[in-house]
Amino acid sequence: MCPCSIDGPGGVLAHASFPNGDEGYVTEVHVDRAESWHIHISRNPPRTHSLLYVIAHEIGHTLGLHHSEHKDSIVFAMAPSKTKFPITLNFDDIFHIRYPYGANYHGSTTKYHLPPPLQLLLQQQQQQHRKTSIMNRVSYEILI
């Protein structure tokens, strides 16, 4: 993570680079040091941004996640005005990180059994992800 001046207060909070598949390539997260940042495990004071939330969002990009259409996703394009605590990942976040990296079913005793409608949704999202990931392999996402 590198604090830098991006565009001053009230604009872009942070940005991150996507992995490009090259050996030795390092992705980076830059946060705008001009913003009012607070790190709280509970709610942040008014007119401040949750550094934990923004960093989680940007780390999603460094792992290859693109913006989601789901407003409760950690990688939704807009930072929420009120961050939910604790910060959690939704189904869309979990699916899209497991698709390229796989799931660690051996690290937990939790079993994942999806009902048929969710299995169909998962298959559709996998097909869509395959189509878009090729076009977006090297890209740059900005959280606004």
TrEMBL record:
GO biological process entries: collagen catabolic process; extracellular matrix organization; proteolysis
Annotated residues for binding of Ca(2+) 1: 35
Residues that bind Ca(2+) 3: 7-8, 32, 35
Note on cofactor: Binds 2 Zn(2+) ions per subunit. Can bind about 5 Ca(2+) ions per subunit.
Keyword Transmembrane: no
Gene3D superfamilies the UniProt entry points to: Collagenase (Catalytic Domain) (3.40.390.10)
GO CC annotations, alphabetized: extracellular matrix; extracellular space
Residues at which Zn(2+) 1 binds: 15, 30
A single MF term (Gene Ontology): metalloendopeptidase activity
UniProt keyword terms in alphabetical order: Calcium, Hydrolase, Metal-binding, Metalloprotease, Protease, Signal, Zinc
Amino-acid positions noted as binding Zn(2+) 2 in the UniProt annotation, renumbered to this chain: 57, 61, 67
Keyword 4Fe-4S attributed: no
Co-factor requirement: Zn(2+); Ca(2+)
Active site: 58
Sequence ranges assigned to domain Peptidase M10 metallopeptidase in this UniProt record: 5-102
Family of this protein: Belongs to the peptidase M10A family.
Protein name: Stromelysin-3-like
Organism: Dinoponera quadriceps (South American ant)
Record lineage: Eukaryota, Metazoa, Ecdysozoa, Arthropoda, Hexapoda
Name of the gene: LOC106750249
